[in-house]
Amino acid sequence: MITIIYYYSFLISSYIGGLLIALGIDDYYMIKRMDHEEYRIIGFILLTLLMILFPLTQLVVGRILGFNSEIEFDRYLHEPVRTSVDKNRRLFRLAFGALTAISVLAVAYTMLKTSTVPLFELLKGNTSELAKMRIDASRGISGIDVYIRNIFAIALTPVLSIIAFIYTTQSRALYWKIVFFLLFMSSLVITTYDLAKSPVFFYVIMLLLAGVFTQTLKLNWKKISAFVISGTVLLVIMYVAIQGVTEVESFLSYNSGPIGRIILAQISPFFLHLDTYSHSIALLEMKGLPSFIAGIFDIEQVRTARMVMENVFPENVDKGTGGVLNTIFIGEAFGSFGYVGVIVCIIYVAAVVQLLYIAFLRLPKTPVVIALTVYFTINIPRTLVGGAADFFFNPIWIMMTVVLAGLFILEQYFHVIWTFLMSKVKRKKVKA
């Protein structure tokens, strides 16, 4: 988790592009919309502060808790997987089967409620308005349908498939093979239906991590190279099919195509946040907090990334192709509370991430816990380049933790708890 955060979220997705922007050699369309050039340097200084203060905070938290990451991770990696206790197996399978049915139905429901599914339109050859269809697919669902899609389809389905995958590799039972197949296919659909390129890649990485954590996959440079080459080829195919990019220069250029998407597209909005909330829009303060927290103070939440999009690219908003300009989490922190918010948020998020990492390595190594660990290992780095509010209150993370905690109890301790409760009931009857 820590390695992915530092090298993916910070170094590759943020710092390299930030350096190009600071040097003035980015030649990127977003940065050309920035009105005040001094924020090139200010932004890079803040990114450098992030690169130093974030791991320093984690080191301090680890030292306070007596945590040695190298020793504890190595112990966790080589610890055998504890599958469901025999006495709990039937009930656990029933509960897991019910959740599987809910997830698969949620995926189907999402497809039905999406007026135009971009994936299906692409397969039919309708590519003229894919950009608008992608925006409509992500923002065209409202009300309770959003929770059904985000929690039970997008979040829960891939995680359940990880659990089924681990049980399949550990037991080889037909039940788990069938369940894994259903969940795997549903996960592929929900991670590609809106033609977003990253979700399906991250889902594959989740499967690979599950294989590594359970020792069913031994990585070496040959396998890693094969995965990287396969991923690159798939990414090129997706760019050609979805965005119609065919020029070789577009793929090799550092400020366009896949490379530009990785090193500049994610970090450029951070500089726009600095520029916008320093001159065009007042700091949001409490309005920038999660809706649940803002609601306590009777304040309507406002997303900093949406405000920046409306301010910098109003023409895209008018055309219906402008969503939000998400970026590294300190961008949202700045939009809400300025420079003080950036420093406080770095320390807070780093401490939260380190505490979660320590907790996962010290929990029992069961398929459910491994799946939860893999889920956060992938989603925390993705959230770091999406905003800060989710680290204060994230209903999807809370719901996922509650559901998987229930599965964990059924998996390991239900029979013990049930026996204890029944013994208490019998004692009360005897006394009566």
From TrEMBL:
<feature type="transmembrane region" description="Helical">
    <location>
        <begin position="5"/>
        <end position="25"/>
    </location>
</feature>
<feature type="transmembrane region" description="Helical">
    <location>
        <begin position="337"/>
        <end position="360"/>
    </location>
</feature>
<feature type="transmembrane region" description="Helical">
    <location>
        <begin position="199"/>
        <end position="217"/>
    </location>
</feature>
<feature type="transmembrane region" description="Helical">
    <location>
        <begin position="174"/>
        <end position="193"/>
    </location>
</feature>
<feature type="transmembrane region" description="Helical">
    <location>
        <begin position="367"/>
        <end position="384"/>
    </location>
</feature>
<feature type="transmembrane region" description="Helical">
    <location>
        <begin position="147"/>
        <end position="167"/>
    </location>
</feature>
<protein>
    <submittedName>
        <fullName>Oligosaccharide repeat unit polymerase</fullName>
    </submittedName>
</protein>
<keyword id="KW-0472">Membrane</keyword>
<feature type="transmembrane region" description="Helical">
    <location>
        <begin position="224"/>
        <end position="242"/>
    </location>
</feature>
<feature type="transmembrane region" description="Helical">
    <location>
        <begin position="41"/>
        <end position="65"/>
    </location>
</feature>
<feature type="transmembrane region" description="Helical">
    <location>
        <begin position="91"/>
        <end position="112"/>
    </location>
</feature>
<feature type="transmembrane region" description="Helical">
    <location>
        <begin position="396"/>
        <end position="421"/>
    </location>
</feature>
<keyword id="KW-0812">Transmembrane</keyword>
<keyword id="KW-1133">Transmembrane helix</keyword>
